[in-house]
Amino acid sequence: MAGHLGLPVSRVVREGPGLVFAIFPDAITRMPVPTFWAILFNLMLLCFGLDTQFAIIETVVTGITDLWPGVRNSKRWIILIVCSCAFLIGLLFTTKAGLYWVRLFDYFVASWPLILFAFLEMTVILIYGAPRFARNITEMIGRNISYFYRILWYTLVPLSTLFLVLASWATHQPLDYNGMVFPHWTQAVGWLLAVLPVLLIPAYALYHVLTEVEDTQQSFMAVLRAYLVSSSADIRRGAKEVLESPGSALASPRRIPPVSSITGRRMPNESELVPALTVISRAQGPLNIDFRETHV
Q1: Which residue, 82, 77, 76, 92, is CA-closest to 57?
Q2: Which of 16, 46, 81, 92 has its CA 20 to 30 A from that of 284?
Q3: How far apart are CA 296 and CA 294, in angstroms?
Q4: Final residue of a domain: which of 173, 204, 235?
Q5: What pLDDT, on a 0 to 100 scale, did the predictor assign at position 2?
Q6: Which residues make Cβ contacts (< 8 Å) with residue 115, sequence separation at least 6?
Q7: Mean per-residue pLDDT for 135-162?
């Protein structure tokens, strides 16, 4: 296409909405059977957009239902409210300045928060501790993980994240679109959009920890570490309650057949059932589950 127009590739192919809605469609018209390829291309965009929306909406709805378990029976209404709010926000991108807003959101929201999230996730290793985190993973997956992961958590992950931050700062340039540099107030809005979602995580963690503090003389790090350890102990205690609850099949492992008489597949053992039952027990309280083999 650059050769057809007699322009350098750098001037023809640029990032942004124009690449999808201008460059690719024009390139498709120059291919054999352009109508066929145009249909496939737009169908791909439709499937990709729907798939992305499903993932985003499900993430938001799951977070809401986990925070307020009482609204789980009204999940349809929660989805309707979330989609309606997203629709109203999306109207901003349909205005005359819509492409500039798309560029602003794409530049700030889709890049910097991911790096900041990586920094926040490293606090699990630095505060909670890699040994405890490794034990929690073992409890969830039923097997020990390699020490190689601990080496990565302490070395490669922090260094690579730091490198990404420094590289982003070194290559940072004022936001522009079609040769027009965005005004300063839009840059401030962009940084607010990038930082605000990330600040909610440590802000809520600080609030949740301080509301549980009994000794105000303790340091914040000590309080946070003690809270994380107690939360992990609560999870293990919940799993133990499920195992020892009267009538539970896990309390009498002999009642669980090694092979299902219906499907012929191996039945899950105790270590495989604990993670799922732990999650259920924390959400709905102790369970009395009676697994009985059904003969055909």
Answers
A1: 82
A2: 81
A3: 7
A4: 204
A5: 58
A6: 161, 164, 165, 168
A7: 84
Taking the C-alpha atoms of residue 104 and residue 193, their distance in angstroms, rounded to an integer, is 9
Of 155, 177, 204, the position where a domain reaches its end is: 204
- Residues 193 and 225 occupy one common structural domain: no
Considering the domain boundaries, does residue 138 fall inside one? yes
Q: Do residues 102 and 187 share a domain?
A: yes
**Which structural domain range is residue 151 located in?**
98-204
What pLDDT is stored for residue 17 in this prediction? 65
Mean pLDDT of all residues belonging to the chain: 72
Token readout for 226 is 């003690």
Pairwise CA distance, residues 111 & 194, whole Å: 8
215 is in an annotated binding site: no
What whole-number distance in Å separates Cα of residue 284 and Cα of residue 178? 54
Helix axes 220-244, 270-284, angle to 10 degrees: 110
d(CA 145, CA 142): 10
Is residue 145, in this structure, part of any structural domain at all?
Answer: yes
- Helix ranges, 91-217 (H): 98-108, 112-123, 130-141, 147-151, 157-170, 184-210
Percent of the chain with pLDDT over 90: 5
Q: pLDDT (tens digit, 9 = 90+) per residue, 207-245?
A: 777 776 665 555 555 655 655 555 555 555 555 554 455
Same domain, 139 and 191: yes
Q: Are residues 172 and 147 in the same domain?
A: yes
